[in-house]
TrEMBL record:
Residues of the HTH tetR-type domain: 6-66
DNA-binding region residue numbers: 29-48
Membrane-spanning segments: none
Organism, scientific name: Protaetiibacter larvae
Keyword terms: DNA-binding, Transcription, Transcription regulation
InterPro entries recorded: Homeodomain-like_sf, HTH-type_TetR-like_transc_reg, HTH_TetR, Tet_transcr_reg_TetR-rel_C_sf, TetR_C_16
MF terms in GO: DNA-binding transcription factor activity; transcription cis-regulatory region binding
Protein's recorded name: Helix-turn-helix transcriptional regulator
Length: 184
């Protein structure tokens, strides 16, 4: 029986998706990706333009069906935290790979674009009020703080806490930015 090969572009994407989270941006070369994909290194550049472009393409979470878009605004805080914790392995790998690559000149500007496009803009579009832009950015910072505490610092207390408790408490913090109480 003959092994069925993926088209080159898809094989490159899959190889990069396996290597970047494990080896990081700096620790993964175009040759490594090409070797893993079973293609010539020139094909990586031909299909993706550069290592930076491939990295940014690969290191995006699948946000097509995520709570920022689908969930009712009144329950978005808890549902988004639940979404992150339910997909912890993928979110962790992507977050750490992005964090480690953030000092690369070619990657840093794209990370800001991704941050705005994947989190801030969809949330901002759902918020109302004169300070909606600020609240969307604070919400992104709040979520980033949780990810940092869990996976960079490795806060053992948080890691050992039942996810339902994290969802309840952290979700309430996030919700307070999404639907703030009226200021009197």
């Amino acid at each position: 029986m003959t092994e069925r090969r993926l088209p080159a572009r898809e094989a490159i994407r899959e190889a990069a998706a396996r290597l970047f989270p494990v080896n990081g941006y700096a620790g993964t070369s175009v040759r490594d990706i090409a070797g893993e994909a079973g293609v010539d290194a020139a094909l990586v550049i031909r299909h993706f333009g550069s290592k930076e472009q491939l990295f940014v393409t690969i290191m995006q979470l699948d946000l097509d069906h995520q709570p920022l878009i689908d969930e009712p605004i009144e329950t978005l805080g808890e549902r988004f935290i639940q979404f992150i914790l339910d997909g912890a392995d993928q979110v962790r790998g992507t977050f750490l790979a992005l964090l480690r690559a953030s000092d690369s000149d070619g990657v840093a500007p794209r990370l800001r674009e991704m941050h705005d496009a994947a989190f801030v803009a969809p949330l901002r579009a759902r918020l109302s009020g004169a300070d909606a832009e600020l609240r969307a950015r604070l919400a992104a910072a709040l979520v980033g703080g949780l990810l940092y505490s869990l996976w960079v610092v490795g806060d053992e207390e948080l890691l050992a806490t039942d996810h339902r408790d994290i969802v309840r408490h952290y979700g309430a913090l996030l919700q307070s930015l999404i639907t703030p109480a009226p200021i009197e």
